[in-house]
Amino acid sequence: MSPADVLIDCRDAALTFGRGPNAVVAVHGAALRVHAGDRLAIVGPSGSGKSSLLHLLAGLEQPTSGSVTWPGLSGLRDIGLVFQGDSLIPALDIVENTALPLVLNGMSDDRAREAALSALALVGTADLADRLPEEISGGQAQRVAAARVLAQAPRVILADEPTGRLDHATGGRVLDALLTAADETGAALVVTTHDPAVAARLTARCTMHDGRLTSADSTEADAAHSLGEPS
Ligand SMILES: Nc1ncnc2c1ncn2[C@@H]1O[C@H](COP(=O)(O)OP(=O)(O)OP(=O)(O)O)[C@@H](O)[C@H]1O
């Protein structure tokens, strides 16, 4: 694994909310590297700091100490985000929702629509294209969110509890959609979850507990590289 493959380099990054006696340390010095091709789960209970760590990786929060850099990315636009729950715009139909980030990035309406339709087809949601968000289920909405990120062809997909509000079978289909999105685009995939069954479907796992990234295991010997070594 060459240094060029490091897409996100999180070095001893901490995140504290508030000050003084009210300060909450959401993330204690976390070391983590995301490489091209990674399929990584960050597992931990509610409140353990998973979302906070993901926000650091996405550049949505600045670390209070330590650093997060993106050596293998041309910018934060190379990161596709999938959040838990509603992220679709109610007044736009599903294909328009899927195409929106592309249109906002300057793609023509026709090309964006075409890309959105093929992304929806890849995650098995082509039949929903003309519906409004209120006309689809929560699980379908999460698969549409996966299609939307697929259409953007990011280098890294960061998904925050994408199956959190779904039953097991529906959550499995959302994970299928995210894995398809990552495979089709060649993106690395990082998923936060409290569900060990979801984590088991990814190649490598980190554990978050009380803000500490405590351990990782792997089903592949070389996936240990996902944890950054102290430098
Ligand atoms: N904006 C904020 N201001 C103050 N405290 C916050 C803020 N965001 C998160 N926290 C606190 O930081 C800690 C970690 O929260 P975080 O949302 O990262 O955990 P989580 O593991 O993602 O939980 P969940 O699975 O419930 O989303 C919690 O104690 C939370 O209350």
Structural summary, described in words:
There is one protein chain. With 231 residues, the protein is an alpha/beta fold. The protein has a single domain, classed as 3-Layer(aba) Sandwich (Rossmann fold). The chain has six helices and nine strands. The radius of gyration is 17 Å and the shape is globular. The site of adenosine-5'-triphosphate (ATP) has 14 residues, from strand 2 and helix 1. The site of adenosine-5'-triphosphate has 14 residues, from strand 2 and helix 1. This is ATP-binding cassette domain-containing protein. Keywords: ATP-binding, Nucleotide-binding. Pfam families: ABC_tran (PF00005).
Q: So how many helices?
A: 6
Percentage of residues assigned to helices: 25-40%
- The geometry reads as globular
Taking pLDDT < 50 over at least 5 consecutive residues as the criterion, the unreliable ranges are 218-226
In N-to-C order, the SSE pattern is: EEEHEEHHHEHEHEE
What name does the CATH topology carry?
Rossmann fold
Assigned CATH superfamily = P-loop containing nucleotide triphosphate hydrolases
Strand order of the largest sheet: 5-6-7-3-8-9
Count the beta strands.
9
User: Which CATH C-level class is it?
Assistant: Alpha Beta
Q: Give a quick account of the main beta sheet: strands, pairing sense, barrel closure.
A: 6 strands, mixed
Number of domains: 1
Radius of gyration, Cα only, in angstroms? 17 Å
Instruction: Write the CATH architecture name.
Output: 3-Layer(aba) Sandwich
> Could you tell me the mean pLDDT?
88
Protein name: ATP-binding cassette domain-containing protein
InterPro entries: AAA+_ATPase, ABC_transporter-like_ATP-bd, ABC_transpr_LolD-like, P-loop_NTPase
GO molecular function: ATP binding; ATP hydrolysis activity; transmembrane transporter activity
Pfam families: ABC_tran
